[in-house]
Amino acid sequence: MSIASYTCPQNREQVVATYFLEHRAKLLDIAAFLDRLDRAPPSSAGADFREVALQQAIRILTDAKPQRVARILSLLSDYSPELPQSAHGMKGASGAVRLVSEPDGILSTGGTPS
Length: 114
Description:
This protein is mainly alpha-helical. Helix content is 43%, strand content 4%. It has two domains: 10-40; 43-78 and 95-114, no CATH class. It is built from three helices and two strands.
């Protein structure tokens, strides 16, 4: 990365000193959630689409490519124009979208970001 592309006003040491404990706690929360999933019996319906989306998001976190936030947000966003028929029994948004398998084998939302 060239010096002109650094946009954070803090250096890496300052960022770590400021945010490490906060993000350490978030990682422990995710690890606890994944451990809970490992201890839970499988569902007859197979893997839940939200679990699959979370696993894909974790892979994005560790791929060292740029724009992690945008790519994860896109992965977890529903771009379909259809509105759900009913929200009966729902507390809120599902936080992920059911992925469809594209011809090349890659899972996608099946929609297009606007």
